[in-house]
Amino acid sequence: MVLKRAEEQAQIIESLQGTMVVDEMHSLTSARVECARDEADATFAKENLALMMQESEKIAKLQQLQRSSILKRNVELSQSVTDYQHRLRESTQNVQRTEDEARRLLIEVAMQAFQAQTCQGRSALHHSKCVLEIQAPVMSVLKAKGFAALKALDQTIMKDMLHGELWHVKLSRFEPSQFPTSYKDHGT
Predict the structure, then answer these.
(1) How far is CA 49 from CA 55, 56, 62, 168, 173, in A?
(2) Residue 106's closest CA among 164, 151, 163?
(3) CA dist., res. 95 & res. 101, Å (int)
(4) 3-state secondary structure of 187
(5) Which keywords does the record carry (predicted)?
(6) How far apart are CA 47 and CA 14, in angstroms?
(7) Which residues contact 74 (CB under 8 A, 6 or more apart)?
(8) 109 neighbors 120 (Cβ within 8 angstroms)
(9) CA 146 to chain centroid
(10) What is the pLDDT of residues 125-157, one digit of tens each?
(11) Contact 117, 143 (CB under 8 A)
(12) Which of 15, 18, 21, 144 is deepest in the core (most CB within 10 A)?
């Protein structure tokens, strides 16, 4: 009986060992399958990461090109605006100089018209100094053709100039804001 029992135990041990071997084989196979699956997932993830990195680099390069293009256009636009401001400033200065010169010339024309009227009846060789020889130049200027068309301030300036000895020197000392600004008709 002991022998029989030893045989039964040996069979049980063999069957347990067989079952264990099968279980171990099955576990080992499952582990290998799971490991292979994990390796495949890791490889897929690495490939996806590489593709994403390449795509990200392409996008970054494209964005850098766009930024460079925008910066270049901004520089060109800034330069254009600066050039335009410079030309506008020069143009404004030229217009101001032209207006000042026109005012100065209008005063000279009014003075010459006055001189021509006050010198009538005298020798044709008289010139601008004949105005200074007149006894009452301020009263005569009020009668000059075109004098009434001047603004009140400009009339005062001309009267003051006639009181001076060198009216043309006084004229050159005027500020542009003191020159006459509008005339109706000078009767040329």
Answers:
(1) 10, 10, 20, 89, 82
(2) 151
(3) 10
(4) coil
(5) Coiled coil
(6) 48
(7) none
(8) no
(9) 47
(10) 444 444 444 434 445 556 666 667 777 777 777
(11) yes
(12) 144
* Distance, CA of 54 to CA of 57 (rounded, Å): 5
- Buried-exposed string 36-75: b where 16+ CB fall within 10 A, e elsewhere: eeeeeeeeeeeeeeeeeeeeeeeeeeeeeeeeeeeeeeee
pTM (two decimals): 0.37
What is the domain partition of the chain in residue ranges?
100-178
pLDDT at 77 over 90: yes
Cα gap 115→134, rounded to integer Å: 10
* Whole-angstrom distance, CA of residue 33 vs CA of residue 79: 68
Query: CA 57, CA 53: separation in Å to the nearest integer?
Result: 6
Q: Give the relative orientation of helices 2-118 and 152-163 as an angle to the nearest 10 degrees.
A: 50
Task: State the Cα–Cα distance between residues 186 and 150, nearest whole angstrom.
Answer: 9
